[in-house]
């Protein structure tokens, strides 16, 4: 299985794209601005969108995706997310005011957009791939995803504060190869990170100490103005043996 990083920045501007990861050719995790760079034919192939939560940086290109592929799709695009996130999308995005209600287009009986509830603990199987929603802590209901190819797993945190149930779920993944974990803010923004339920280098490193060594750890969602500082703070304080790298747009993780 291949996981391709379409966007992994905590902001925009000159080469930065917000969160979107593509699994194989027909699944994406989050639909931030990174999604917009795919060629038309590849956009048209997306059957499933799994959302970690409904914040704008993770959904910005979902409405535009549906509008773009509508003329060439004969089957719906299924959006998998918590009931709370789906309610947010329906109420605040697909409400005929911000954007058309694609659950009713092209026809109320066969909308292009389908919702499927995925709460923490739920799994969804697609061929050999199994996705499992894991608990995280954010300002709105949110999940992380475990992606299991049958050979190995990648866990992607989405947005989260430090959260013991998340770390317990990560530690329980028996075939974990790669952990993609957010660190949105530098340590000097600790108060803002707490208020917005994101991680800082110090708090991430404290939590990582309990995980087994040898894990491939990729840092995502760095705020653009502080990305170098965040990585310096992480690598400067990390204990020997921790394999920490910044996740980069264009990275392909095979598992
Ligand atoms: Zn968020
Ligand atoms: Zn975010």
UniProtKB/TrEMBL annotation:
Start and end residues of each Metallo-beta-lactamase domain: 15-188
Family matches, as InterPro entries: Metallo-B-lactamas, Pdiesterase2, RibonucZ/Hydroxyglut_hydro
Record protein name field: cAMP phosphodiesterase class-II:metallo-beta-lactamase superfamily protein
Any coiled-coil regions, as ranges: none
């Amino acid at each position: 299985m291949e996981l391709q990083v379409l966007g992994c920045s905590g902001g925009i501007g000159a080469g930065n794209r917000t969160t979107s990861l593509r699994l194989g050719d027909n699944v994406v995790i989050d639909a931030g601005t990174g999604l917009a760079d795919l060629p038309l034919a590849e956009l048209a192939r997306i059957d499933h969108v799994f959302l970690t939560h409904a914040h704008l940086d993770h959904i910005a290109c979902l409405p535009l995706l549906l509008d773009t592929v509508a003329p060439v799709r004969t089957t719906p695009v299924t959006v998998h997310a918590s009931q709370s996130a789906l309610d947010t999308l329906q109420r605040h995005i697909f409400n005929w005011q911000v954007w058309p209600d694609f659950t009713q287009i092209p026809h109320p009986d066969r909308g292009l957009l389908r919702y499927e509830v995925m709460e923490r603990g739920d799994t969804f199987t697609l061929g050999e791939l199994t996705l499992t929603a894991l608990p995280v802590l954010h300002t709105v209901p949110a999940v992380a995803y475990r992606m299991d190819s049958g050979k190995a797993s990648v866990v992607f945190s989405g947005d989260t504060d430090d959260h013991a149930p998340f770390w317990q779920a990560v530690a329980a993944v028996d075939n974990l190869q790669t952990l993609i974990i957010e660190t949105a803010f530098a340590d000097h923004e600790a108060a803002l990170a707490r208020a917005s339920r994101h991680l800082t280098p110090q708090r991430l490193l404290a939590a990582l100490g309990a995980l087994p060594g040898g894990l491939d750890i990729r840092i995502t969602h760095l705020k653009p103005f502080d990305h170098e500082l965040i990585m310096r703070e992480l690598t400067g304080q990390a204990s020997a043996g921790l394999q920490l790298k910044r996740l980069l747009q264009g990275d392909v993780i095979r598992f």
